[in-house]
Give the backbone structure.
Amino acid sequence: MVTCYLRYVIDPDKVAEFECYAKLWIPLVNKFGGQHHGYFLPSEGANNIALALFSFPSLAAYEQYRIDSFKDTECMAAFDYAKQTKCIQSYERSFFKPVFGN
């Protein structure tokens, strides 16, 4: 299993728009075989940082999701929404291997 960690720098005046964007992506990741663990919006501290975590069975499955998402009309609509609202200023992506207790 591989977990994708996304750290977003968002427009602090467009948190509501980013939340809408997040709600679009949760079912889409699940649709393509991933498990979304949620988005995390600013609360206390920095007002322009948001996070997301989701997992796929393997890096290959994640890479297939990325390919397929660029062909999917719902995914493209979500990408377009972010562009139109300009709620995301930048993001970075990292991958982790989860460790679970016994």
Remarks:
- Residues 7 and 51 are 5 Å apart (CA to CA).
- The longest strand covers residues 2-10.
- Residues 15-31 form the longest helix (17 residues).
- The mean pLDDT is 95.
